[in-house]
Design goal:
single chain, mainly alpha, two-stranded antiparallel sheet, 8 helices, 2 strands, about 70% helix
Length: about 180
């Protein structure tokens, strides 16, 4: 699958197979550190903390214990935001593909856009400038600021709320690392 992906995308976007493998390894490590959802949603361990100090201690301990689960919740929120805002999804893809293309241009040597002689000559600096300008306009049109604000607030409330009201895991009481 990687070789097909690399060969097909390599025509338009240079994809390094080593970076794909390192991404897969990092993803597998994160997925292995996920705690069971039954433990994450264990209602018997939810209680209101007695003080702000207890709240912050719970946040710190639960963050250490459930960090992979919180990261997955964050990715789900980002995916939801992208799937419900098609303009933003288009913008993210455009910026990714555009930056990969501009990074392949020679540094200080004018080159025809897409190697097409009928298109103008540009340098890599002009490519970055054009991409940045186009991205700023597209991100403004797609209301990226409100999407980012929504994601940060939503994930912050979910993570702080869960971590603050869930009693610390038992492993912490015994000094064991899981």
């Amino acid at each position: 699958m990687n070789s097909i992906l690399t060969s097909q995308l390599g025509k338009y976007i240079p994809v390094d197979s080593g970076s794909l493998e390192s991404l897969q390894q990092a993803t597998q490590q994160r997925m292995q550190s996920l705690k069971p959802w039954s433990e994450f949603f264990d209602r018997s361990r939810f209680s209101v903390p007695a003080s702000y100090t207890e709240f912050s201690v719970r946040c710190r301990l639960n963050w250490q214990h459930f960090h992979a689960n919180y990261l997955l919740v964050s990715f789900i929120a980002v995916a939801w935001s992208l799937l419900t805002n098609w303009w933003l999804l288009f913008d993210v893809i455009f910026i990714f593909v555009g930056s990969r293309y501009v990074s392949t241009l020679p540094a200080n040597e004018p080159t025809h856009l897409f190697n097409n002689a009928s298109l103008p000559l540009i340098t890599q600096t002009q490519g970055w400038l054009g991409l940045g300008l186009a991205a700023a306009i597209l991100l403004y049109i797609s209301a990226a600021g409100s999407a980012i604000f929504w994601i940060v607030v939503f994930v912050g409330i979910i993570v702080a709320g869960h971590a603050g009201v869930m009693e610390a895991p038992l492993e912490v009481d015994f000094g064991e690392t899981v």
